[in-house]
Design a protein that fits this description.
By secondary structure, this protein is α/β, with parallel strands linked by helices. About 30% of the residues lie in helices and about 25% in strands. It has helices at about 20-30, 40-55, 70-80, 90-95, 115-125, 135-145, 185-195, 215-235, 260-275, 290-295, 330-335, 420-425; strands spanning about 10, 15, 20, 35, 60-65, 85, 105, 125-130, 150-155, 180, 200-205, 240-245, 285-290, 300-310, 315-320, 340, 350-355, 365-370, 380-385, 405-410, 410-415. The strands form 3 sheets. Strands 4, 14, 15, 16, 17, 18, 19, 20 and 21 form a 9-stranded mixed beta sheet that branches. Strands 5-6-7-8-9-11-12-13 form an 8-stranded parallel β-barrel, surrounded by 5 helices. The longest helix is centred in the middle third of the chain and has 21 residues, at about 215-235. The mean pLDDT is about 95. It binds pyridoxal-5'-phosphate and lysine (LYS).
Length: about 450
Amino acid sequence: MYLHGTSRINARGHLEIGGCDTVELAQRYGTPLYIMDEALIREKMRAFVDAFQDTGLAFRVAYASKAFSTLAMCRIVDEEGLMLDVVSEGELYTALSAGFPAERIYFHGNNKTPQELEFALDEGIYLFVVDNFDELMLLEHIAKEKEKRARIILRITPGVEAYTHKYIQTGKEDSKFGFGLDSGQALEGVRQALECTHLDLMGFHCHIGSQIFETEAFQLTIAKMGQFIKTCYERYGLVTRIFNTGGGFGIRYHKDDAPKEARDYVQAIAEAVRKYLHDLPVLPEIWIEPGRYIVGEAGTTLYTIGAIKEVPGIRKYVSIDGGMSDNLRPALYQAKYEAMLANRAQESATETVTIAGKACEEGDILIWDLKLPQVKQGDILAVNCTGAYNFSMANNYNRVRRPAVLFVKDGQAEVVVERETLQDVIARDRIPARLAPKKASVTVG
Ligand SMILES: Cc1ncc(COP(=O)(O)O)c(C=O)c1O
Ligand SMILES: N[C@@H](CCCC[NH3+])C(=O)O
């Protein structure tokens, strides 16, 4: 397994992250357990900022909080001075509750509700990324009622197909997101936005997908957007102040993945910006909004190995105490992960096994054909690169309790999200009086 950030094998032959022995963490906090390497998160954020600083462009780096959003994470984003992209009132509420300044937050989403728009407007967020004509009218109406002005940028679908899973391609013309560029919707969106008396059109956004390795897709997008931005200036005199090129930068989940460094992505973006936007009256501020690249490699999930079943001559299923409830990505995108035995990290692989989750679904397979030392019940499996879209997509299917999240750094482990309790599982259930039991039958929990 590829070791990221502060991960290493310690003298006891155990996987260590952030100076903490993961086997001890599993014993102390239980499994499944999400572990986040705080130093690596910060390093990734700084890599983008440093790379942009070297380009000399005016820029902003945002963190896409959908990848992993908790109060503690928002504190780190704030301390590192990044902007924050939220896509729901829940993410916005999390950020504000963490003391994240509203003026560094902006709001994404293809169906923001009136309640969400009002909440965000009242809190004074920096801007809204308007996704469609209906939202444009709705936001104008709400801002007018409140006698406020809202900054906006329009989300444009540039018609670029990035090489990634089709469920996470978002830049193609046939997408639920954004104003289509090729169809002319984008230009019409600009015309309508400029007529809105309570909206300030600051610029544009586009995001072509996620887990993208090639820089060419970003450059092609900038080329198309550069042309569009020029057309907007010529036709409407619109000076584009902000051009957000989105996120989507790929990471190394698996040995076959070949991502680039933050610097490579930024240099490619900067090169394309200079090439395709140089003849504008003002070069817009360039924004990016990575999620996965910042937190993905920083996350590791620990599981305890339970039942082992051999299907003679076919395969050996090794079951863990989690699965698609804490990591939906293999079931949803056929995502591939690497893993190791955290308690026997120096031992060489002698068998090929399939890691099965505990959900009541045949498709709950976390990793097919993984090479490990001879596995025993009670071993601790560490799956790496689980920092993005694992905790944030976790669910209670089968009424499974969602795991705790730890931040580890310099030998210290801190719980940033508690493990759900059995009481949490039923906390919002109500029994109508007519169905009330004579007495509760549970004695634990
Ligand atoms: C609009 C938008 N911005 C940013 C992101 C973050 O993407 P990633 O985590 O791949 O960087 C996404 C998710 O794909 C997105 O839809
Ligand atoms: N959740 C997805 C990516 C989509 C991100 C947001 N548009 C993943 O796990 O890869």
